[in-house]
From TrEMBL, chain A:
Matches recorded under Pfam families: CT_C_D
Protein name per the record: Sporulation inhibitor KipI
GO MF annotations, alphabetized: ATP binding; hydrolase activity
Domain called Carboxyltransferase: residue spans: 4-204
Species name: Cognatishimia activa
Gene3D superfamilies: 3.30.1360.40, Cyclophilin-like (2.40.100.10)
Keywords: ATP-binding, Hydrolase, Nucleotide-binding
Lineage: Bacteria, Pseudomonadati, Pseudomonadota, Alphaproteobacteria, Rhodobacterales
InterPro entries linked to this entry: CT_C_D, Cyclophilin-like_dom_sf, PxpB
UniProtKB/TrEMBL annotation, chain B:
Protein name listed in UniProt: KipI antagonist
MF GO annotations: ATP binding; hydrolase activity
Transmembrane segments: none
Record Pfam families: CT_A_B
Record key words, sorted: ATP-binding, Hydrolase, Nucleotide-binding
Highest taxon in the source lineage: Bacteria
PANTHER family reported in the protein's UniProt record: 5-OXOPROLINASE SUBUNIT C
InterPro entries: CT_A_B, Cyclophilin-like_dom_sf, PxpC
Domain Carboxyltransferase: 27-300
Keyword Protease: no
SUPFAM superfamilies from the UniProt entry: Cyclophilin-like
Amino acid sequence: MPQARFTAVSDHAVLVQLGDEISDKINLEIQSLDRAIAAAGINGFLESIPAFVNILVVFDPLVTDHGSIEAAIKPLLADVSAVQGRGTERVVRVCYDLDIAPDLSEVAAQAGLSEDTVINMHLGASYRVGMYGFAPGYAYLSGVNEAIQVPRKPSALRDVPAGSVIIAGPQCLVTTLTMPTGWSIIGRSPTEILTDNPRHPFLFDVGDTVRFERIDRATFEAEKGLRHG
Amino acid sequence: MGEARLKVVAAGPLVTVQDAGRTGYMRFGVAASGPMDRLSHAAGNVALGNAPEASGIEISMGGLVLECVSGTLSLAVTGADCLVETCGDSLGSWNVISLSPGERLSIRAGHKGSWAYLAFAGNLESQEWLGHSATHSTSGFGGGALSAGQVLTVRDAALREDRHGAIERPAIAASEAIRVVMGPQDRFFDPSALSALQEQPFRLSAQFDRMGVRLDGPKLSIDGALSIPSEPVAKGAIQVAGDGTPTVLLADHQTTGGYPKIATVISTDLDRISQMRAGDVVHFEAVSPEQAVSIARDKALKMQVYLEEVAVPRGTLAQRLMRENLISGAVSETPD
């Protein structure tokens, strides 16, 4: 059973922390706790936001308070474990053509590998959705092969198009908005993370696994055109 | 009842469609958005007989000019003090007015406040995202920002003359200071930073938008090097950058971040700090989590009473004149 630290946040939330350093074990425990909280039907519970080492539990202060939320969560910790939940495997299609993968060559150079090897290593790994953050639909996927892990670039690039597949350290992300980023852009995807489906508006749930699938330029353009057509 | 169409003649930056906001999607990276000043937004709506969460327009200090193309309707202006001009009349905010074809409505920043609200008697047609029209300013999702040339459509537009005139302003007693609950990372800060936050004045800087407002004032130094894993962030969080500069996160805040949070502004005081302006002085006062909950409950009760009062129609002009005559006349001593 993990040790938890509870911290009151403002008048409407409790931060539950299971550790201080990012690890697969702690992230899996967080996801296990997240599922337990969702299933517990806690009075006054509004939403929970899982991250790498902690989870923010938001409540309605007109109905409950920090102490009651903490008391409702404590017994759930006994059943928390670092096992992979029954997340769905999601497939993200990606085109690695150099003009839409402007940092692929630099990543290859830093890793001392060929561009094709970088692509194959990116395709070969299985990723897990650790958390969302930064902007709507920005899902942090852990699992980047150590051989192609690179630090953030010293300065951010502006106006990086939506659908960019970007990496930094052990994390990979598929962007949903045109935004600046300091991460390395190694491909572009036509796969919608914001699905436009009101019943399932985001492609991933936290805890899902993700696999990348390579497509050629013609397929990328066709799928992208379909999306915007 | 019919349809009214209003052409946007001019709109400043950050003039956006807002309903009460979309909660429940923070786990997908989506902040609730919604009005920076929630009570003013709700008051404008209920003064017209709308539901408090109905879609309206949030107007930044950049201002807004509309021209009525077709239809006649009542509108309410609440929130920041502003100059409201229509048909040669000049009045302030906190009024219900009407607009007919050919007439213009101009709303410009006045002396105080940062965000004004325009509510419509009827249903403002707007793009929704995840079931809400609230605009998330950085992505543009939701109803979106207004721009010149655009035409707004109000369905079921109505003239509600029994609601025209001044709207009672909220007189909810609030402390001068902006109240915070310390943490969740206060333990990482120098004791001097913790006391500076509570004892020294800060000023709102011009770095102020719907995501948050950066503060000028004492630097809040962190005790040693600190790198915390990116973690969930609550609205109102005061996050401190590496150089010690605090930023208060507001309606369109990022849902996660790796900066330590020294304290969090209680939700009761978020409308008030959002209505301050660049250069205004802010004092923070720490309260316990238990006090914060009790303040939230007290405020909710007062808000409910206030909104119920504002929602009562005042009667037509004839009825109001009659009532005033009666009040100044012989029956002035009767309680009703």
